[in-house]
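Task card 7
Instruction: Convert sequence to structure tokens.
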Amino acid sequence: MLEIVQAGGWLMVPILLCSVIAAAISVERLWTLQRSRITPKNLLAQVWSALKTDSMDSQKLRELRASSPLGQVLAAGVGNAKRGREVMKEAMEEAAAQVAHDMERYLTSLGVIASISPLIGLLGTVVGMIKVFTALMLEGAGNANVLAGGISQALITTAAGLSVAIPALMFHRFLLRRVDELMITMGQEAVKLVDIMQGGPEEEPRL
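Output:
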């Protein structure tokens, strides 16, 4: 592996750096965006139970807000329920926007890595071919080692750039899709809470 990196030239350094950053972002987001951490099961039912027993005090509201992103959205709704349906919905939408921003953290960087990695590899290809043609101009076609080294550098950097870009792009798309699905789930739970607290269906929410 070290020989391949050395053969690829100095442009292998930013490609390897991109691979490390992409791997770190992917692992961190996969851990953070677990459904059980973002939208805990039965959380709305627990909130509804506390509201029915009139036990949703300021302490429990703070605990709800800190428990999960869904809890943050629901807490915004509960805290503004007495101000009317529209104000409650607006507060929950603002909280959801903040939650979405937090869930998309680092995904832009992952997308950038997926875009620039093949370009860095392409730059390595150009540098390698320049080396080949420079050797042809100075030494003719007789020095096969120099020619092979330039071509090898060009191929290695291209392959390395694509090897980083392809999984980075796949994880970027997958994680964006995960964020969209979680936001839809939170939106559905928020609508249920609004209906319950502002004159909607009075039965206990089905989760």
